[in-house]
Amino acid sequence: MKRAEAAKISLGWGHQASALASPSESLKAACPHAVFLQISNFSRCSPKGGLNSIFMNVEKVFLKAEWRYLAMLNYEIDPAVLAPRVPTGTELDKWNDKTFVSIVGFLFLKTKVLGIPVPLHQDFEEVNLRFYVRRCVEEEWRRGVVFVKEIVPRWAIAAMARKCYGENYVALPMHHQITLRDGQLATEASVEYSWRMAGKWDRLGVRMSGEPSVVRPGSEEEFITEHYWGYSVQPGGDCVEYRVEHPSWRVWQVAQAALECEVEKLYGEEFCQSLNSEPSSAFLAEGSAVSVSRGRLL
Question: What sign has the CA pseudo-torsion 116, 118, 227, 48?
Fold first, then answer.
């Protein structure tokens, strides 16, 4: 698969992370009072008490949103690189005896936390690096993802995710560019997500090819897109499990894919060999409405 040539990016709407307010100040300023009170309780609870008790009197679903235009670049990786990051109670999930990491860029839209839309924090970009695990529950496998790092454009979003799920979120200025025609992806559209780190814009992009199709059972596309659980290692080594619900997604194959970033600075030296090579596969998923449950400590 050829990498897209570097080009000057004509950027659409985007967001910038605040350099003036601390994460807790930004979170409090952005969230309606009821939401902030629920979220802030995490910082005052022990891991075992907080994650299981904070949602006793609220709905099971913590977050609802739409995930759209998911550009997915997938790389084979030595399982030994991921072994130290595998959460307790899970094991690496493989496809055709291959272990993958994926860099995924997408739009978070119409976001609601505890059923409440948070002003100025409903629509934003995210880019994450993730790998795949599974957990056996009552003789059935729960297939899930573990995030290495997630990039979003606002401190409040990053702070909320760190408090509620213990995920490794960072806030960086971000933009995206998506080729639309009459509100739909244009033929051979390009989808690109970019973020600024150390004064330099990095990017993840794909150019689609053909028409979208439903993923085939047993295919690599199904493996990558249909992991419906999240697992997060907590301070002290505990593991939080949460459910992610969405319908199956249609996907486009891509003619070109590009990742331009300093892998070692962003993710660590151990990921350089995989992420500096050509992706094993790349595709664009249509996305849908999603819901994310409250976390449960295993």
Answer: negative
pLDDT digits (tens, 9 = 90+) for 122-167: 999 999 999 999 999 998 999 999 999 999 999 988 988 888 888 8
Question: Residue 194, Cβ neighbours under 10 Å: how many?
Answer: 23
Whose structure tokens read 């899970």?
90
Strand pairing category for 169-171 and 239-245:
unpaired
Domains identified in the chain and CATH numbers = 14-297 (2.40.400.10)
**φ, ψ of residue 10 in degrees (nearest 5):** -90, 105
Taking the CA atoms of the chain, what radius of gyration do you get in angstroms?
Answer: 19
Beta strand pairing status for 296-297 and 239-245?
A: antiparallel
**Orientation angle between helical segments 23-30 and 33-40, nearest 10 degrees:** 140
Cβ atoms 75, 56 nearer than 8 A? no
Neighbours of 88 (CB within 10 A): 12
Closest to 185 (Cα-Cα) out of 207, 214, 216, 215: 207
Please give the structure tokens belonging to residue 297. Answer: 């400590």
Task: Write out pLDDT tens, residues 54-111.
Answer: 433 333 898 999 999 999 999 999 999 999 999 999 999 999 999 999 999 999 999 9
Q: Which amino acid is at 100?
A: F
